[in-house]
Amino acid sequence: MKQYLEILRNCPLFQQIEEENLLTMLGCLGAKVEFFDKKYTIMAEGTPAKYIGILLSGSAQIARSDYYGNRSILSNIGPAEVFGEAFACAEMGAIPVTVIANEPCTVMLIDRDHILHTCRNQCGFHQQLIFNLMKDLATKVLVFHQKIEVVSKRSTRNKLMTYLMLQAKKQSSNRFTIPFDRQELADYLEVDRSGLSAEIGKLSREGILRSHRHHFELL
Fold first, then answer.
1. The pLDDT value given to residue 103
2. Fewer beta carbons below 10 Å: N end or C end of the chain?
3. Could you say which of 2.60.120.10, 3.40.50.300, 3.30.565.10, 1.10.260.40 is the CATH number of the domain covering 2-141?
4. 118 pLDDT exceeds 80?
5. Which of 79, 70, 133, 86 minimizes the C-alpha distance to 101?
6. Model confidence at 188: pLDDT above 80
7. Residue 57, SS3?
8. What's the pLDDT score for residue 4?
9. How far apart are CA 98 and CA 131, in angstroms?
10. 101 beta partners
11. Residues 6+ apart with CB under 8 A from 3
């Protein structure tokens, strides 16, 4: 586990926990590390919501599909980020989303029961862990509301511009990079790809933005 300490120090789940306590905690929690190749499923929709995941390397996406197979991307995950915690803490019978590796990934998985229920040792840092988990869940709620703000717009144009303006604000620049290709952006905005491409073309001709692959500039 020592090779992952640098990443884990940046994980919101372990904030304010001393490094010498972290290794002890990981043993107490029964944390396990698994590797997933590109396009492999890390957590599958319909499986028991038993584990909380931490991405140690690579990147992944959280997505859901409706009855007809239409795919919607909920978020991207990068190193040190936590996923699956809301479903695990809610003790849902099954996960309603799928987590897929965008590239080869190393993932730490922790059984939710080892976090939600303190161990016999009554470790003092376990209370900090639970506090961190609550804070992380609250942050995810804010991110979820931001996604609602985007997809609740009525037109593809308004969804796209709302998302791009949020990204510009987040990155403090009118020139920025987004984590999606065109199909993924369409899936995130919950719109048709061809309609999205047409709208980007219109906005470019109108002098509102410039774009190239993942790069955008608001004019």
1. 93
2. C
3. 2.60.120.10
4. no
5. 79
6. yes
7. strand
8. 84
9. 26
10. 60
11. none
